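Subject: DUF3857 and transglutaminase domain-containing protein

B.,
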Amino acid sequence: MTIQFIKAYFLLLLLLLSSLQSFTQVLDDATFISINADRKKSIRRKVILQINNKDENYLSHVEIRHTSKQDFSFDYAKVLDQDGKVVRKLKKNEVFSRHAQSNQAFYQDDIITGFDLFWNQYPYTIEYSYTQVEKEYLYYAFWRPIYDQEAFTVHSSLEVHLRLNFDFQKKSSDELTYFHSKSQSNSILKWDAFHVKYPKQNELLSSRPVFPQVKLIPKEFIYAIHGSTESWSSFGTWMDQLNSGSTNITSNEKEKIENLINGLNTKEEIIKTIYHYLQDHTKYINVSIDAGGLKSYPASYVCEKKYGDCKALTTYMKGMLQSVGIESFYTLVKAGVQKKPIDINLPSQQFNHVILMVPIESDTIWLENTSNCLPFNYIGTFTQDRKALVVDGEDSHLVHLPKLTINDVLVEKNFDYMISENDSSNIKVNITLRGEKFEKSRYSIFKDGGNFIEEMARNHVDMKDFIIKNQVIIDNNRDSTFLKVSLTGISTSVIRKIGNLQVIQPLKLTIPDFEKPSFRETNVSINYPINEQHISELYFNFSEKKEITIPKNIIIENNFGIYKAKFLLNEGHLTITEKLLFYDNKINLEEYSEFYKFISQIKNYKKKSAIILK
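Prediction pasted inline below.
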């Protein structure tokens, strides 16, 4: 494919798409990166956006994330009308800058710099350019040709110039157009992408979209100290050396720890007691690992301040254990409820979180040091079942973190209904939460206390008019991996009257919604099992005996999971057991029709299932 053909194709797309004004277009998004002889990296990006109507004005609000270590500036920004005439230019006093905010922290290290530059006649074009310069980095380039989820990208490009003697590792997607040439002193690498659109995601179990991307990684780099990406061992050695000497705690803290563990007999008891001390006396703040900030604050800093990011809190925990002779290992992981696999064949910075590995005699303890409310030795939905890098000098290596089992995520709900001839039913509900629902509820109770209890109860009892009379949270101890909630209340909607019949819809378990196969654009990603069971006991107390008709029992089972519903009627007492299990799974688009059929079978059965009283 010649350069002339590519240019002609690009111009054709511009002409075609400029006539379609129903969606925002990124006409061009060009990134140019140069690495000079001193390894200083300069990034210049130029973006041209076409905005067609008022609803698309949100893209006239531009924000660029960068770090305090980078020299950042906007080169220019301007608005052009539909005839290509410049009608507005960005002024210096229109540029704002602030710290990035996080819903999990009261401080974040990244900086947001941006502007608002809109026009009131459509269509109009915004063109802007900015420059970033940095001396310390771990990637020559990490690029994706996506500007915004709602925008269509006509053309995006990356061009990198680096010295011929600079060794690098390269990984790029096959669908990108790639050119490689050389000048007298530089390697010139260029990638182009055309006609790029963000896949539609309409429900929670969508896989993370896989975009074309380029990773260009130096084999030798300077980030505070010299480092190498030759192997995971060499990368881990660099990380170890970067944080060398950071684990020493203060003498006052050491004395506190020694008094705290006095009289404890086992290593596990000591580790648990120190971990509880960490949870009770420190606060998590957020400093991005992805963009920078890889060097940890020392443990002594946390001793004094009583707060830190994941690196500092993990270093602090490591330092406290070290002070009593217990070895532990700083462990890097790509965290998130959606599992994002790292490329094990590309040793490099691919992580966004740190936890602590503590080997004991016959087991391994894993410590999440940023949470004040999760149990001791708990690997939850945020970090389970993925590769992680254990940092241990030249012995640094990848491990696979433990996987949540079916029992680890089981949610149980037991309902007792006392049904009489009046319109209201007395109801008692006992709920046991595990997995993600346990984690979220624990955090919310820790954060909001009693204000959250009633809201949580309503979320887990699917009855519109359920009036809660009493609620109790039974949280056995801080290291329980489950949360129990007990509720009593009244509902007038258990029985519906249809003509001369009384009808009860008995199956309360919620099935996630999925698109029809013809609309589905992404794979289904079930990152850990979804396991829920409801047992309902219905006690009928009528003055006259009624004929009770119950649905047929059902079992639907395949490679995706199991659905069961069983009804057992015995002298005015009905027991209903409903169970849903989705296996952890990656369901591609070729399999999706069968998966959708499985979901539809369950929903159709539930829709038609009713208890009839007459």
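Residues 5-22, 103-107 have pLDDT under 50 and may be disordered.

T.
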